[in-house]
Model the fold of this input.
Amino acid sequence: VCIEIPEGTEPGDHTVIGEDEDGNTGEDATNVYTPMIEATSPVLAGGDTTVTSGGWLPESDVTLQLT
Done:
């Protein structure tokens, strides 16, 4: 089963609870994270920009690419 996390959900630990038609329930934990990236703009070709980033999963490898 796949569930959609509603937009605007606060980052952090949450509990997912399911219930069947007989009233049986089950629950488990999930972690919501919200990666973000900001860069200064405009920038002349050959110039520098400051990039601020956060909200990634711990120990994640993140690659930035200019397109």
User: Anything to note?
Assistant: The first strand starts at residue 12 and ends at 19.
